[in-house]
Amino acid sequence: MSVVSDKAASSSVAAxxxxxxxxxxxxxxxxxxxxxxxxxxxxPAGLLPQxxxxxxxxxxxxxxxxxxxxxxxxxxxxxxxxxxxxxxxxPLLLAAITGFLVANTITAxxxxxxxxxxxxxxxxxxxxxxxxxxxxxxxxxAPEHLKGRAIAIAMAGTPLALSLxxxxxxxxxxxxxxxxxFGLMSGLTVILIFWVLIKVxxxxxxxxxxxxxxMGVFTMPGIRPVLFVVLTYVLAxxxxxxxxxxxxxxxxxxxxxxxxxxxxxxxxxVSIWGVGILIDSSLxxxxxxSIVLFSLSAVAFWIWSDxxxxxxxxxxxxxxxFGGCATLFQTASAKTAGPAADLAQSMLVTTWNAxxxxxxLIGGVLLDSFGVAAFAPSLLVLLVxxxxxxxxxxxxxxx
Length: 399
Prior knowledge:
- By secondary structure, the protein is mainly alpha-helical.
- The chain has 17 helices and no strands.
- The protein starts with a helix and ends in a 7-residue tail after the last helix.
């Protein structure tokens, strides 16, 4: 009897310890997937002259390789996620990752602009599906009280890609050629496929009777406030980020653009680390702090734009605000939607991409009509709206 009791106690302790552990192997695989997604999306932007020369097209035409990727994500995220609710999760994840392998391999060897555009569209579709899956997948792998931290780890590949991966890819592209860079991305994707097969668990899809409709998820308490905050916050970010070079040119710091973005990138890495530690206990507070930090940066850019030290400090504050925001918003969406997290994430992905496109469009109109002086007040209007909605979403969304 004593032996049985000891065994039961040992099993209980083991289960308790297991519940406090994160599945690092699987979460880091998702983080690598996020890294590949972002680098694949942004890599052409830094290599437009080389790609244009290689395909015999203008730089503006080469720039459409970024546009068609975003369009693929925007169009595919919601319908694909809705259609695949009943599919097993790991085969679906592998299908999205394989889409990157196919698309990057074609991009690396294609001599046809039209074929390359198709490949980039396929990559965008794969990205839309992967982003919809990633946060919910990470949450399902982790114990209840560590779900936010699990999502933070899975999303860590995003700031790493933006701050290190894309600049490194651009640098390599000038040395080994742009085609070799996309070939390297394909090789990295092959490694990821085997990693997922070994370390990422499979989960069942949703049975027919438990699947939610798109409108049913959209009308869930808290989902619309989260989507509104995503739209306004990311719109504000992309107005500034897309046109950071003209902004810095106007204040006499164009030649320091790379240094300003480096400060932004390093601060973003600090942010993702801090958010990962605190998110499970302080999601609401971190979201409000993020909005306030970004607002303070906008004020500094507005009032002290002629002081280089302030510009660097404001870029650091902006990076601290933005670095962890994807994790904050995806965690808020996943926790609010519960079992319908994947469908809610697909809406978030669509909203995020719409905000990216809107930032380029609205920022361009502001630049042409009023100049860079209009950026900061426009950002503040959007961020005040984000702050108010976050404050009000105290029961659902950002509780």
